[in-house]
Amino acid sequence: MSAILIKNGTVVNEDSMARADVLIQEGVIVDVQPSISIDSPDVRVIDATNKMVIPGGIDPHTHLQFPFMGQVAVDDFYKGTQAALAGGTTMVIDFVVGQKGTLPLDSWRQWREWADPKVCCDYGLSVAITSWSPEVAAQMAELTRPEYGINSFKFFMAYKEALMVNDDEFYEGLQVCAKIGALARVHAENGHVIHSKQKELLSQGITGPEGHTQSRPEELEAEATNRACVLAAQANCPLYVVHVMSKNAARAIAYHRQKGHVVFGEPIAAGLVLDGSGYYDRDWSKAAALVMSPPLSRDPSTPTALMDLLACGQLHLTGTDNCTFTCEQKKRGMNDFTKIPNGVNGLEDRMSLIWEKGVHTGKLDPMRFVSVTSTAAAKIFNCYPRKGKIARGSDADVVIWDPNRTRVISAATHHHANDYNVFEGMTVHGVAEITICKGKVVWENGQLNVEQGFGKYVPLMPFNNYVFASIPFKQQMSRPICVSRGDCQETPVEPTTVETTAEVNYARRGQQPAGGASSIVF
Ligand code: URP
Ligand code: ZN
Ligand code: ZN
């Protein structure tokens, strides 16, 4: 693979922004300096004058090729990762979601089989727990081993009778996550009440997409978000709330963070840009195109409010929940809104949409933009600084970003497999002019130059200090209290040594943590 020298650009990381040149060799960034000069025919020089040089985007929430609600999402791992690269995203974290009753390890194998031959960029996986048993719990632990590379599990509090787990199962799942050093992720909506409301609305003759939003009031998202935070705190488990779609759900996260709990909130491209008025469109297909869960907010001020929370740090990173179905597939729910396959696009347009609504409006600076589109995900999922940073030694996942150029989003020009785009007609500032993935120019002059299987699986390791470092302290502070009445030892007991999470984890595997052992004495 030839070397690339990017000259005269402004290198933007989450914590710095400065003029610098970037040298790439063998898929890795080998140098970042104020000025690098190399005169060799083997080095391609790219002039980035007036452009920004940013880490490739990481989308932590995709559903490529997902079999869901009787359909299979049309963006498979080939089309989906092409769309990602065209928009400046160079890594995705996809969800393994097995049907109820399937075992997580089998589902993980299935997703690898689907993804490996098709991915054009690197990818990681996050595994959904859709049923509960001691065997599932044991497999969760197994999946955190390096050969499987899973450090997060997702629980659905919605989709009753399909993917949903009940509170007792969720709580036990959270306890297992805490023990094995995995981040718990949650789809927070009250699935029981939604199920009842769906039946009520259908019995009243409301069968169109407007029934989707009416069956899922925002309060049911906020209530479940609060409940998820409470249960995670009770289990002393870090929590990541996916697709935060409403102000009150975001407020619940902020409230629990203020109380000292480890909670991350992920708004998605659609929720940061669109509101839910479209569910009442007289054109069935236009309304059905927007059907996703939780639904877009009925409050038109929500998208800006979510962006404000992202700007001030109460929400932490952005995903897309990219899960695309064609108009024809959506028509499965023509006579019953509960059968419309849920999901929208976003993977190609996320970076530009966030630039437009966040940076162009003056809410985010370019460094915060890099954080919420890339670096925060790399840190939360434990692949930083390999990903999410322009620095020596990092993977050469680099985007030459033109902050001044505009483009118009359209299904006629997008790289997704579906036949509409929920952002159709929007003009956005901020365009990925060149995308470099692992040292290869894969997007340039509006053309993709990709190879199926070029991307590789990135194992994500548990007990990530960025997420877990406070957990043993919290555990120590909340240990059970025994009042001595002659039958047990009064607490607090003698100072105890709490081993750091990394040590416990590595000891379990018979390995030594990198950087040597450490322990904390209370
Ligand atoms: O509507 C959505 N969000 N579809 C994908 C599945 C999920 O809930 O994440
Ligand atoms: Zn979800
Ligand atoms: Zn999702």
TrEMBL record:
Its cofactor is Zn(2+). GO terms for cellular component: cytosol. It catalyses: 5,6-dihydrouracil + H2O = 3-(carbamoylamino)propanoate + H(+). It holds the Pfam family Amidohydro_1. It comes from the Eukaryota. One of its GO terms (biological process) is pyrimidine nucleobase catabolic process. Residues 52-442 form the Amidohydrolase-related domain. The modification N6-carboxylysine is found at residue 154. Coiled coil: none annotated. It is an enzyme of class 3 (hydrolase). One of its GO terms (molecular function) is dihydropyrimidinase activity. Carbamylation allows a single lysine to coordinate two divalent metal cations. The keyword Translocase does not apply. Keywords: Hydrolase, Metal-binding, Zinc. Its EC number is 3.5.2.2. PANTHER family: COLLAPSIN RESPONSE MEDIATOR PROTEIN (PTHR11647:SF1), HYDRANTOINASE/DIHYDROPYRIMIDINASE FAMILY MEMBER (PTHR11647). Belongs to the metallo-dependent hydrolases superfamily. Hydantoinase/dihydropyrimidinase family. Homotetramer. This is dihydropyrimidinase. It comes from Steinernema hermaphroditum.
